[in-house]
Amino acid sequence: GAMAEERALAMVTCTAPVNIAVIKYWGKRDNDLILPINSSLSVTLHQDQLKTTTTAAASRDFAEDRLWLNGEEADVGHPRLQACLREVRRLARKRRGGSAEDVAPLNLSYKIHIATENNFPTAAGLASSAAGYACLVSALARLYGVEGELSEVARRGSGSACRSMLGGFVQWQRGERPDGRDSLAQQVAPETHWPELRVLVLVVSGEKKQVGSTAGMQTSVDTSPLLKHRAEAVVPERLALMMRHIHERDFEGFGQLTMKDSNQFHATCLDTFPPIFYLNDLSRQIIALAHRFNAHHGRTKVAYTFDAGPNAVIFTLADTVAEFVEVVRRSFPPATNGDQFVRGLPVDSASLPEELLTAVVTEPVPGAVRYILHTKPGPGPQLLDDPSQHLLGADGLPRRCT
Protein backbone atom coordinates (compact mmCIF):
# COMPACT_ATOMS: atom_id res chain seq x y z
CA GLY A 1 0.00 0.00 0.00
CA ALA A 2 0.94 3.68 -0.33
CA MET A 3 2.94 5.29 2.49
CA ALA A 4 0.69 7.03 4.99
CA GLU A 5 1.18 10.78 5.05
CA GLU A 6 3.93 11.86 7.44
CA ARG A 7 2.74 13.38 10.69
CA ALA A 8 2.84 17.18 10.62
CA LEU A 9 3.60 17.55 14.33
CA ALA A 10 4.72 14.84 16.71
CA MET A 11 5.20 15.50 20.43
CA VAL A 12 6.34 13.37 23.35
CA THR A 13 6.92 14.16 27.05
CA CYS A 14 9.00 12.06 29.42
CA THR A 15 10.30 12.38 32.97
CA ALA A 16 13.59 10.99 34.29
CA PRO A 17 15.22 10.59 37.71
CA VAL A 18 18.34 11.76 39.50
CA ASN A 19 20.75 9.04 40.67
CA ILE A 20 23.31 9.02 43.49
CA ALA A 21 26.43 6.91 43.10
CA VAL A 22 27.44 4.77 46.07
CA ILE A 23 30.50 3.45 44.18
CA LYS A 24 31.70 6.58 42.41
CA TYR A 25 32.48 7.25 38.76
CA TRP A 26 35.43 9.61 38.44
CA GLY A 27 37.71 9.61 35.41
CA LYS A 28 37.25 8.90 31.71
CA ARG A 29 39.39 6.71 29.49
CA ASP A 30 37.77 8.28 26.41
CA ASN A 31 36.46 11.84 26.53
CA ASP A 32 34.51 11.83 23.26
CA LEU A 33 32.61 8.60 23.88
CA ILE A 34 32.46 9.22 27.65
CA LEU A 35 33.95 5.89 28.69
CA PRO A 36 34.87 5.54 32.38
CA ILE A 37 38.09 4.21 33.90
CA ASN A 38 36.02 2.21 36.40
CA SER A 39 32.54 0.74 36.79
CA SER A 40 30.14 2.47 39.20
CA LEU A 41 26.94 1.75 41.09
CA SER A 42 24.11 4.08 42.00
CA VAL A 43 20.68 4.39 43.53
CA THR A 44 17.97 5.98 41.39
CA LEU A 45 15.91 8.49 43.44
CA HIS A 46 12.14 8.85 43.29
CA GLN A 47 10.73 11.24 40.70
CA ASP A 48 8.01 12.54 43.01
CA GLN A 49 10.79 14.50 44.73
CA LEU A 50 13.45 14.95 42.03
CA LYS A 51 12.83 14.78 38.32
CA THR A 52 13.48 16.34 34.96
CA THR A 53 10.59 16.70 32.51
CA THR A 54 11.35 17.00 28.79
CA THR A 55 9.08 17.54 25.81
CA ALA A 56 10.47 16.85 22.34
CA ALA A 57 8.52 17.86 19.24
CA ALA A 58 9.24 17.55 15.54
CA SER A 59 7.41 19.33 12.76
CA ARG A 60 7.82 20.12 9.08
CA ASP A 61 6.93 23.70 10.06
CA PHE A 62 9.92 24.21 12.40
CA ALA A 63 12.60 26.40 10.78
CA GLU A 64 15.43 25.31 13.09
CA ASP A 65 16.24 23.11 16.07
CA ARG A 66 15.54 24.97 19.34
CA LEU A 67 16.01 24.24 23.05
CA TRP A 68 14.52 25.74 26.23
CA LEU A 69 15.86 25.00 29.74
CA ASN A 70 13.54 25.94 32.60
CA GLY A 71 11.73 28.38 30.29
CA GLU A 72 14.86 30.14 28.98
CA GLU A 73 16.09 29.52 25.44
CA ALA A 74 19.49 27.77 25.44
CA ASP A 75 22.13 26.69 22.94
CA VAL A 76 20.84 23.71 20.96
CA GLY A 77 24.28 23.26 19.40
CA HIS A 78 25.84 21.90 22.59
CA PRO A 79 28.10 19.05 21.38
CA ARG A 80 26.79 16.48 23.87
CA LEU A 81 23.16 17.27 23.07
CA GLN A 82 23.99 16.97 19.37
CA ALA A 83 25.72 13.62 20.01
CA CYS A 84 22.54 12.25 21.62
CA LEU A 85 20.36 13.55 18.80
CA ARG A 86 22.70 12.07 16.20
CA GLU A 87 22.72 8.67 17.94
CA VAL A 88 18.93 8.47 18.29
CA ARG A 89 18.45 9.41 14.63
CA ARG A 90 21.05 6.81 13.63
CA LEU A 91 19.14 4.14 15.58
CA ALA A 92 15.88 5.29 13.99
CA ARG A 93 17.38 4.99 10.51
CA LYS A 94 18.75 1.55 11.33
CA ARG A 95 15.40 0.37 12.69
CA ARG A 96 13.60 1.50 9.55
CA GLY A 97 15.48 -0.91 7.32
CA GLY A 98 12.25 -2.18 5.81
CA SER A 99 9.91 -2.84 8.74
CA ALA A 100 6.28 -1.88 8.15
CA GLU A 101 5.16 0.47 10.91
CA ASP A 102 1.62 1.04 12.19
CA VAL A 103 2.28 4.75 12.53
CA ALA A 104 4.03 6.47 9.65
CA PRO A 105 7.57 7.12 10.83
CA LEU A 106 8.63 10.63 11.58
CA ASN A 107 10.59 12.37 8.86
CA LEU A 108 14.16 12.41 10.17
CA SER A 109 14.93 15.70 8.45
CA TYR A 110 12.28 17.62 10.41
CA LYS A 111 13.72 20.16 12.86
CA ILE A 112 12.99 19.58 16.53
CA HIS A 113 12.04 21.70 19.53
CA ILE A 114 13.01 20.54 23.02
CA ALA A 115 11.84 21.99 26.33
CA THR A 116 13.14 20.69 29.62
CA GLU A 117 12.65 21.63 33.26
CA ASN A 118 13.64 20.37 36.69
CA ASN A 119 11.37 20.25 39.75
CA PHE A 120 14.45 20.98 41.91
CA PRO A 121 16.95 23.85 41.94
CA THR A 122 19.47 23.13 39.17
CA ALA A 123 22.18 25.03 41.01
CA ALA A 124 21.76 22.96 44.17
CA GLY A 125 24.50 20.65 42.95
CA LEU A 126 22.07 17.77 42.50
CA ALA A 127 22.88 15.66 39.46
CA SER A 128 20.82 17.60 36.96
CA SER A 129 22.89 16.53 33.93
CA ALA A 130 22.22 12.84 34.63
CA ALA A 131 18.45 13.35 34.84
CA GLY A 132 18.55 15.87 31.98
CA TYR A 133 20.26 13.64 29.42
CA ALA A 134 18.35 10.52 30.48
CA CYS A 135 15.16 12.48 29.95
CA LEU A 136 16.27 13.93 26.61
CA VAL A 137 17.20 10.50 25.27
CA SER A 138 13.97 8.91 26.55
CA ALA A 139 11.87 11.61 24.87
CA LEU A 140 13.82 11.53 21.59
CA ALA A 141 13.67 7.71 21.47
CA ARG A 142 9.88 7.81 21.90
CA LEU A 143 9.57 10.57 19.31
CA TYR A 144 11.51 8.56 16.72
CA GLY A 145 10.10 5.16 17.68
CA VAL A 146 13.43 3.75 18.85
CA GLU A 147 13.53 1.03 21.50
CA GLY A 148 16.16 -1.16 23.10
CA GLU A 149 19.53 -0.25 24.57
CA LEU A 150 19.40 3.49 25.27
CA SER A 151 21.77 3.78 28.24
CA GLU A 152 24.64 3.91 25.75
CA VAL A 153 23.03 6.91 24.03
CA ALA A 154 22.40 8.71 27.34
CA ARG A 155 26.04 8.08 28.32
CA ARG A 156 27.07 10.22 25.33
CA GLY A 157 25.29 13.14 26.96
CA SER A 158 26.64 12.69 30.49
CA GLY A 159 28.35 9.60 31.87
CA SER A 160 26.13 9.26 34.92
CA ALA A 161 23.02 9.75 32.75
CA CYS A 162 23.28 6.13 31.59
CA ARG A 163 22.47 5.09 35.19
CA SER A 164 19.33 7.28 35.23
CA MET A 165 17.87 5.17 32.40
CA LEU A 166 16.96 2.51 34.98
CA GLY A 167 15.26 2.48 38.36
CA GLY A 168 16.38 1.07 41.68
CA PHE A 169 20.01 -0.02 42.02
CA VAL A 170 22.04 0.37 38.86
CA GLN A 171 25.51 -0.63 37.76
CA TRP A 172 27.30 1.20 34.96
CA GLN A 173 29.62 -1.41 33.53
CA ARG A 174 32.92 0.07 32.48
CA GLY A 175 33.07 -2.11 29.36
CA GLU A 176 36.17 -3.20 27.47
CA ARG A 177 35.54 -2.21 23.87
CA PRO A 178 37.17 0.96 22.51
CA ASP A 179 33.90 1.86 20.70
CA GLY A 180 32.00 1.85 24.01
CA ARG A 181 29.25 -0.50 22.85
CA ASP A 182 29.61 -2.50 26.07
CA SER A 183 29.79 0.49 28.42
CA LEU A 184 26.19 0.21 29.58
CA ALA A 185 23.90 0.47 32.57
CA GLN A 186 22.34 -2.63 34.10
CA GLN A 187 19.79 -2.93 36.90
CA VAL A 188 21.18 -4.71 39.97
CA ALA A 189 17.83 -4.69 41.78
CA PRO A 190 14.53 -2.84 41.27
CA GLU A 191 13.39 -0.01 43.57
CA THR A 192 10.91 -2.40 45.19
CA HIS A 193 13.75 -4.65 46.39
CA TRP A 194 14.54 -2.64 49.55
CA PRO A 195 11.32 -0.89 50.58
CA GLU A 196 12.69 0.49 53.90
CA LEU A 197 15.60 2.38 52.32
CA ARG A 198 15.30 6.18 52.56
CA VAL A 199 17.37 9.08 51.29
CA LEU A 200 17.87 12.49 52.89
CA VAL A 201 19.49 15.20 50.77
CA LEU A 202 20.97 17.93 52.97
CA VAL A 203 21.14 20.96 50.71
CA VAL A 204 23.84 23.22 52.09
CA SER A 205 24.50 25.70 49.35
CA GLY A 206 23.10 26.59 45.96
CA GLU A 207 26.41 27.96 44.76
CA LYS A 208 27.81 26.69 41.49
CA LYS A 209 30.79 24.43 42.10
CA GLN A 210 34.22 25.90 41.51
CA VAL A 211 35.50 23.02 39.37
CA GLY A 212 33.11 21.28 36.99
CA SER A 213 33.08 17.48 36.97
CA THR A 214 34.35 17.18 33.40
CA ALA A 215 37.43 19.35 33.96
CA GLY A 216 37.99 17.99 37.47
CA MET A 217 38.04 14.34 36.52
CA GLN A 218 40.40 14.96 33.59
CA THR A 219 42.92 16.65 35.90
CA SER A 220 42.54 13.73 38.33
CA VAL A 221 43.21 11.18 35.58
CA ASP A 222 46.30 13.17 34.54
CA THR A 223 47.78 13.75 37.99
CA SER A 224 46.42 11.42 40.71
CA PRO A 225 48.24 8.14 41.38
CA LEU A 226 45.53 7.34 43.94
CA LEU A 227 42.86 7.49 41.22
CA LYS A 228 44.75 4.91 39.15
CA HIS A 229 45.04 2.63 42.19
CA ARG A 230 41.35 3.16 42.97
CA ALA A 231 40.21 2.21 39.45
CA GLU A 232 42.46 -0.82 39.10
CA ALA A 233 42.62 -2.29 42.60
CA VAL A 234 39.88 -0.91 44.84
CA VAL A 235 36.69 -0.47 42.82
CA PRO A 236 36.31 -3.97 41.29
CA GLU A 237 36.32 -5.58 44.75
CA ARG A 238 34.04 -2.92 46.23
CA LEU A 239 31.55 -3.26 43.40
CA ALA A 240 31.08 -6.99 44.00
CA LEU A 241 30.75 -6.38 47.74
CA MET A 242 28.23 -3.55 47.26
CA MET A 243 26.05 -5.72 45.03
CA ARG A 244 26.04 -8.40 47.72
CA HIS A 245 25.05 -5.89 50.45
CA ILE A 246 22.20 -4.66 48.25
CA HIS A 247 20.96 -8.17 47.43
CA GLU A 248 21.04 -9.08 51.13
CA ARG A 249 19.57 -5.70 52.18
CA ASP A 250 22.48 -5.45 54.62
CA PHE A 251 22.39 -1.81 55.70
CA GLU A 252 25.45 -2.12 57.94
CA GLY A 253 27.60 -3.30 55.02
CA PHE A 254 25.94 -1.01 52.48
CA GLY A 255 26.28 2.06 54.69
CA GLN A 256 29.91 1.53 55.67
CA LEU A 257 31.02 0.87 52.11
CA THR A 258 29.07 3.88 50.82
CA MET A 259 30.88 6.18 53.27
CA LYS A 260 34.30 4.67 52.54
CA ASP A 261 33.84 5.02 48.80
CA SER A 262 32.70 8.64 49.10
CA ASN A 263 35.72 9.39 51.26
CA GLN A 264 38.07 7.77 48.77
CA PHE A 265 36.58 9.69 45.87
CA HIS A 266 37.19 12.95 47.73
CA ALA A 267 40.68 11.74 48.62
CA THR A 268 41.41 11.36 44.89
CA CYS A 269 40.22 14.96 44.44
CA LEU A 270 42.67 16.03 47.14
CA ASP A 271 45.35 13.88 45.47
CA THR A 272 44.72 15.70 42.18
CA PHE A 273 47.27 18.43 41.43
CA PRO A 274 46.37 21.22 41.99
CA PRO A 275 43.92 19.75 44.55
CA ILE A 276 40.15 19.96 44.11
CA PHE A 277 37.93 20.67 47.14
CA TYR A 278 34.30 19.75 46.70
CA LEU A 279 33.60 19.35 50.42
CA ASN A 280 33.47 22.44 52.62
CA ASP A 281 33.47 22.97 56.40
CA LEU A 282 29.78 22.20 56.60
CA SER A 283 30.18 18.97 54.64
CA ARG A 284 32.84 17.91 57.12
CA GLN A 285 30.60 18.80 60.07
CA ILE A 286 27.85 16.59 58.60
CA ILE A 287 30.36 13.74 58.22
CA ALA A 288 31.40 14.11 61.88
CA LEU A 289 27.73 14.28 62.93
CA ALA A 290 26.93 11.02 61.10
CA HIS A 291 29.85 9.25 62.78
CA ARG A 292 28.82 10.53 66.24
CA PHE A 293 25.23 9.40 65.59
CA ASN A 294 26.37 5.91 64.54
CA ALA A 295 28.84 5.64 67.44
CA HIS A 296 26.09 6.58 69.90
CA HIS A 297 23.89 3.78 68.54
CA GLY A 298 26.77 1.32 68.28
CA ARG A 299 26.00 0.53 64.63
CA THR A 300 25.67 2.11 61.19
CA LYS A 301 22.25 3.78 61.19
CA VAL A 302 23.04 6.55 58.69
CA ALA A 303 25.52 6.68 55.79
CA TYR A 304 26.67 9.78 53.91
CA THR A 305 27.89 10.17 50.37
CA PHE A 306 28.96 13.34 48.54
CA ASP A 307 29.23 13.89 44.80
CA ALA A 308 31.22 16.72 43.20
CA GLY A 309 29.76 19.35 45.55
CA PRO A 310 29.10 20.07 49.24
CA ASN A 311 25.57 18.63 49.58
CA ALA A 312 25.30 15.54 51.73
CA VAL A 313 23.18 12.61 50.65
CA ILE A 314 22.29 10.43 53.63
CA PHE A 315 21.06 6.85 53.25
CA THR A 316 19.13 5.41 56.17
CA LEU A 317 16.20 3.12 56.93
CA ALA A 318 12.64 4.34 57.43
CA ASP A 319 12.71 3.74 61.20
CA THR A 320 15.67 6.13 61.64
CA VAL A 321 14.44 9.08 59.54
CA ALA A 322 12.50 11.00 62.21
CA GLU A 323 15.27 10.80 64.80
CA PHE A 324 18.08 11.75 62.41
CA VAL A 325 16.09 14.64 60.89
CA GLU A 326 15.59 16.00 64.42
CA VAL A 327 19.34 15.62 65.07
CA VAL A 328 20.05 17.64 61.91
CA ARG A 329 17.46 20.24 62.93
CA ARG A 330 19.13 20.63 66.35
CA SER A 331 22.63 20.68 64.86
CA PHE A 332 21.81 23.17 62.09
CA PRO A 333 18.76 25.10 63.32
CA PRO A 334 16.90 26.56 60.32
CA ALA A 335 17.36 30.29 59.82
CA THR A 336 13.61 30.92 59.53
CA ASN A 337 10.93 29.43 61.79
CA GLY A 338 11.40 26.04 60.20
CA ASP A 339 8.77 26.21 57.47
CA GLN A 340 9.81 24.09 54.49
CA PHE A 341 12.96 22.94 56.27
CA VAL A 342 11.89 19.35 55.54
CA ARG A 343 10.57 18.74 52.03
CA GLY A 344 9.48 15.66 50.09
CA LEU A 345 8.12 12.60 51.86
CA PRO A 346 6.51 13.32 55.25
CA VAL A 347 8.68 13.00 58.37
CA ASP A 348 7.24 12.26 61.80
CA SER A 349 8.31 14.42 64.71
CA ALA A 350 10.70 12.87 67.19
CA SER A 351 11.83 13.79 70.69
CA LEU A 352 15.47 13.08 71.39
CA PRO A 353 16.70 11.48 74.60
CA GLU A 354 19.02 13.74 76.61
CA GLU A 355 22.01 11.39 76.36
CA LEU A 356 21.74 11.35 72.55
CA LEU A 357 21.65 15.17 72.43
CA THR A 358 24.70 15.38 74.67
CA ALA A 359 26.65 12.80 72.69
CA VAL A 360 25.67 13.79 69.15
CA VAL A 361 24.62 17.45 68.95
CA THR A 362 27.74 19.36 69.94
CA GLU A 363 27.87 22.95 68.69
CA PRO A 364 24.82 24.03 66.67
CA VAL A 365 25.45 26.08 63.50
CA PRO A 366 22.26 28.04 62.78
CA GLY A 367 21.10 28.37 59.16
CA ALA A 368 23.88 26.18 57.73
CA VAL A 369 21.61 23.58 56.12
CA ARG A 370 19.08 25.27 53.83
CA TYR A 371 16.67 22.35 53.75
CA ILE A 372 16.38 18.57 53.90
CA LEU A 373 14.77 16.66 51.05
CA HIS A 374 13.30 13.29 52.12
CA THR A 375 13.01 10.76 49.29
CA LYS A 376 13.53 7.09 48.48
CA PRO A 377 14.62 4.86 45.58
CA GLY A 378 12.38 5.05 42.53
CA PRO A 379 11.79 3.85 38.96
CA GLY A 380 13.45 4.81 35.67
CA PRO A 381 12.19 7.25 33.01
CA GLN A 382 8.42 7.50 32.47
CA LEU A 383 6.31 8.51 29.50
CA LEU A 384 3.61 11.08 30.31
CA ASP A 385 0.42 10.24 28.44
CA ASP A 386 -1.55 13.32 29.42
CA PRO A 387 -1.20 15.97 26.66
CA SER A 388 -1.82 18.75 29.19
CA GLN A 389 1.60 17.95 30.66
CA HIS A 390 3.51 18.84 27.49
CA LEU A 391 5.92 21.73 28.07
CA LEU A 392 5.39 22.89 24.47
CA GLY A 393 2.12 24.06 22.95
CA ALA A 394 0.64 23.03 19.59
CA ASP A 395 2.75 25.80 18.01
CA GLY A 396 5.91 24.08 19.30
CA LEU A 397 6.74 26.96 21.67
CA PRO A 398 6.97 26.83 25.49
CA ARG A 399 3.57 26.94 27.14
CA ARG A 400 4.48 28.63 30.38
CA CYS A 401 6.55 31.73 30.14
CA THR A 402 8.69 32.18 33.24
Automatic annotation (TrEMBL):
<keyword id="KW-0752">Steroid biosynthesis</keyword>
<dbReference type="InterPro" id="IPR053859">
    <property type="entry name" value="MVD-like_N"/>
</dbReference>
<keyword id="KW-0444">Lipid biosynthesis</keyword>
<dbReference type="InterPro" id="IPR020568">
    <property type="entry name" value="Ribosomal_Su5_D2-typ_SF"/>
</dbReference>
<dbReference type="InterPro" id="IPR014721">
    <property type="entry name" value="Ribsml_uS5_D2-typ_fold_subgr"/>
</dbReference>
<dbReference type="InterPro" id="IPR005935">
    <property type="entry name" value="Mev_decarb"/>
</dbReference>
<keyword id="KW-0152">Cholesterol biosynthesis</keyword>
<keyword id="KW-0753">Steroid metabolism</keyword>
<keyword id="KW-0756">Sterol biosynthesis</keyword>
<keyword id="KW-0067">ATP-binding</keyword>
<dbReference type="GO" id="GO:0019287">
    <property type="term" value="P:isopentenyl diphosphate biosynthetic process, mevalonate pathway"/>
</dbReference>
<comment type="similarity">
    <text>Belongs to the diphosphomevalonate decarboxylase family.</text>
</comment>
<feature type="region of interest" description="Disordered">
    <location>
        <begin position="379"/>
        <end position="402"/>
    </location>
</feature>
<comment type="function">
    <text>Catalyzes the ATP dependent decarboxylation of (R)-5-diphosphomevalonate to form isopentenyl diphosphate (IPP). Functions in the mevalonate (MVA) pathway leading to isopentenyl diphosphate (IPP), a key precursor for the biosynthesis of isoprenoids and sterol synthesis.</text>
</comment>
<keyword id="KW-0456">Lyase</keyword>
<feature type="domain" description="Diphosphomevalonate decarboxylase-like N-terminal">
    <location>
        <begin position="16"/>
        <end position="185"/>
    </location>
</feature>
<comment type="pathway">
    <text>Steroid biosynthesis; cholesterol biosynthesis.</text>
</comment>
<keyword id="KW-0153">Cholesterol metabolism</keyword>
<protein>
    <recommendedName>
        <fullName>Diphosphomevalonate decarboxylase</fullName>
        <ecNumber>4.1.1.33</ecNumber>
    </recommendedName>
</protein>
<dbReference type="GO" id="GO:0004163">
    <property type="term" value="F:diphosphomevalonate decarboxylase activity"/>
</dbReference>
<dbReference type="GO" id="GO:0005524">
    <property type="term" value="F:ATP binding"/>
</dbReference>
<keyword id="KW-1207">Sterol metabolism</keyword>
<dbReference type="GO" id="GO:0006695">
    <property type="term" value="P:cholesterol biosynthetic process"/>
</dbReference>
<dbReference type="InterPro" id="IPR029765">
    <property type="entry name" value="Mev_diP_decarb"/>
</dbReference>
<keyword id="KW-0547">Nucleotide-binding</keyword>
<keyword id="KW-0443">Lipid metabolism</keyword>
<feature type="domain" description="Mvd1 C-terminal">
    <location>
        <begin position="199"/>
        <end position="383"/>
    </location>
</feature>
<dbReference type="GO" id="GO:0005829">
    <property type="term" value="C:cytosol"/>
</dbReference>
<dbReference type="InterPro" id="IPR036554">
    <property type="entry name" value="GHMP_kinase_C_sf"/>
</dbReference>
<dbReference type="Pfam" id="PF18376">
    <property type="entry name" value="MDD_C"/>
</dbReference>
<dbReference type="InterPro" id="IPR041431">
    <property type="entry name" value="Mvd1_C"/>
</dbReference>
<dbReference type="Pfam" id="PF22700">
    <property type="entry name" value="MVD-like_N"/>
</dbReference>
